Amino acid sequence: MEPASHFFYSDRIKLQFWDWGNEGKPVVVLVHGSRDHARSWDWVARALRDDYHVYAIDLRGHGNSAWAPGALYSIAEHVLDLSALADIIHRFPVSIIGHSLGAVTSLMYAGVYPDRVRKLVAIEGLGLPIQEKQYPAAERMRRWIEKLRDTETRSSRSYPNLAAAVARMKEANPFLSDEVAEHLTLHGTNWNSDGSIIWKFDNYARVFPPYGANLDEAAQVLRQVTCPCLLFWGRQSFAKDPDGDPLAQQIANRRIVKVDHAGHWLHHDQLERFLTDVKAFLRD
What we know:
This protein is an alpha/beta fold. It contains nine helices and eleven strands. The strands form two sheets. Strands 1-2-4-3-5-6-10-11 form an eight-stranded mixed sheet, with helices on both faces.
């Protein structure tokens, strides 16, 4: 069964979400990672939809949501968009499952609105946008300006056909099967007039903003999270082990799950293991 497509507005930007149905069941919202899209959750959504009313959002600049010229694509802006969707659903408290950028966004939302989140699953969501904090303020601003100016002169990479784009998808994540890689690519690309293929996401979403990623402030927000949190980490991932991450320690009600033979996209790499743990966590 395919989900229903809907659009909503946040900050005057037209954003898409997918509704998997099952009115009256507890709500689960799925939030994808950077340069990804909502349909990357299809396997998770299908597994949960019998027991939950599942929604999946395309973040601004991703999937079928509008690009946001002039926006920073900051965590704060993504939290704003998630809060708008949650208000539209209006079935608090909701449970949220987020990956990477989506997990950071979900955790920040849970800290800003702790009474609105029942349970939270975060797949490797404590690192990337906050790494800029290691640089002094002036250097952060300079790095942001240089990366943004570089993006202005870059063209989106295109591929001659779907097979070439699928091959690039599998290069980024060797754990993917051919079937999963093709599904992710089909829903994550558009066709140019010459028949070539480009990714849907906005290249400007690659650039981390110079502010809004302060480690101390992020820790303050995470200390406000009151709901139970399940933190996933793939042992073959480039992300930091949450046991050694000071931000993870700020989440009072947390449990860490480490998954073998899985990288950064462990919900694809070890789907059955992921679903087993998530279903038990949401049900308890």
